[in-house]
Design a protein that fits this description.
single chain, Rossmann fold, 3 domains, 13 strands, about 40% helix
């Protein structure tokens, strides 16, 4: 069996198919299309039509990035049969019970299994728990293809390291972890990825190691932020500004600069649950990780309750108050509203009868309404009882106290989730995490 994939791709006698063209898949497809023949596959026909016009639906990539690339876009599974390398980059979310939701991964595996042939490779980039690729995905490939693993086709796992909105740590500038189902697979896949990665390849000794490496990257960050959030909860009871404390502590040479905040997104707020799920499956209760998740998942409600406490202290009536929340996306300067923890603030305020309005220069009104049932506004009022700046978009960074007072009622309150206006607010009632 000929598994010399790298050479065949260089000669363009075969192609790479990227399954799933979102935040991870599209940049990867365009990067490979500089050097190889690429097919971009997605089940969303509307997404495919936009991509054919050089439009990224996620609004992360400009139209120039599509030019001069050897790539075709399709939603027809029949058109991907000619490829020899299939890279799966579909979402791996959690369900309402914080358990792994593998439906997209299983569906993609089924699609690839039906077109898989002898000599092909399948690589997964979606974040999963250790063992998922071989224990959950591989059987689907075998069942649909009828092929023998590591005899007729080979497997790999190479976790994505993309950071939406980050123009510095781009795909090509991140060391790429690569693993394979045997030595030959590792060698071939490493050479293929090295074509687009300028800073180097790390060859993991097994697929499980690569899966575990990805899952702890975000778990580590989640726990560090959870510590900052818990410190914020403690210092708030002591009437100490958390950012003042962190600023002082940061003068020590080995202090790590983490800050409190809302933990949303598809990675930090989701990936630890994949690890805790697997830990429980093997008989270990991950107390530290789950405690961190408990703290971080509760911060939106904490911000809302603190806002209402401040309003009551100012003599404002909760049921007749109007609160403006600025920022709705899961992080600054991105358009993505999925898994945004700002919604926790909105829901908590709404549950207490507060009239809450939301403004965001990036988020789609239609998507936000469809996902969460809240309306985004463009035109701001001049009588808000409290303003919560929940996301530090660039557009908000130039605002000053005079602006906030101009859109506020008497005795205005500014809740600064990220602490970006610290030391700049003199007259308003001010609070931050």
């Amino acid at each position: 069996m000929n598994f010399k994939l790298h050479q065949n791709l260089i000669q363009k006698s075969t192609s790479i198919t990227i399954i799933g063209l979102g935040y991870v898949g599209l940049p990867l497809a365009l990067a490979f299309a500089k050097y190889f023949k690429v097919i971009g596959y997605d089940i969303s026909e509307s997404r495919i039509q936009q991509l054919k016009q050089g439009i990224d639906p996620s609004r992360e990539i400009n139209s120039d990035a599509f030019k001069g690339k050897d790539i075709v876009f399709t939603s027809c599974a029949e058109e991907i049969k000619s490829s020899s390398l299939y890279i799966i980059t579909v979402p791996t979310p959690i369900d309402v019970y914080n358990l792994p939701d593998l439906k997209y991964l299983q569906a993609a595996s089924s699609t690839v299994g039906k077109v898989l042939k002898k000599g092909d490779y399948v690589v997964y980039e979606s974040t999963v728990y250790p063992g998922c690729t071989e224990e959950d995905c591989l059987p689907v490939l075998v069942a649909h293809s009828g092929l023998q693993f590591n005899v007729d086709f080979k497997l790999g796992y190479s976790p994505e390291r993309l950071n939406p909105g980050d123009t510095q740590h781009t795909l090509e500038k991140n060391i790429k972890v690569v693993s394979g189902s045997d030595a030959e697979a590792l060698e071939e896949l490493s050479k293929i990825y090295a074509t687009i990665i300028t800073v180097g390849i790390h060859r993991a000794p097994s697929i499980k190691v690569a899966e575990a490496a990805k899952i702890i990257e975000n778990t580590q960050r989640d726990l560090n932020i959870a510590l900052m959030n818990e410190l914020s909860l403690i210092f708030d009871k002591m009437n100490i500004n958390t950012h003042d404390v962190l600023e002082a502590a940061a003068t020590k040479w080995n202090f790590q600069p983490y800050k409190p905040g809302l933990v949303g997104g598809h990675c930090i707020g989701v990936d630890p649950y994949y690890l805790t799920y697997k830990a429980k499956k093997v008989g270990y209760n991950p107390n530290v990780i789950l405690s961190g998740r408990f703290v971080n998942d509760g911060m939106g409600a904490h911000v809302a309750k603190k806002t209402m406490q401040l309003m009551l202290k100012q003599g404002k009536q909760i049921q007749t108050s109007r609160v403006l929340v600025m920022g709705a996306t899961f992080k600054e300067n991105v358009h993505d509203i999925r898994t945004s923890r700002v919604v926790d603030i909105l829901q908590e305020l709404a549950d207490f009868g507060v009239c809450v309005e939301v403004h965001d220069p990036y988020a789609s009104k239609e998507e936000f309404r469809r996902y969460y049932g809240f309306e985004l506004i463009d035109q701001l009022r001049s009588d808000y009882d409290a303003i919560i700046v929940a996301v530090a978009h660039n557009e908000f960074m130039t605002l000053d106290e005079s602006y906030f007072t101009s859109i506020s009622s008497a005795q205005p309150i500014l809740v600064d989730v990220k602490g970006v206006y610290r030391k700049k607010i003199k007259e308003m009632v001010y609070w931050s995490l």
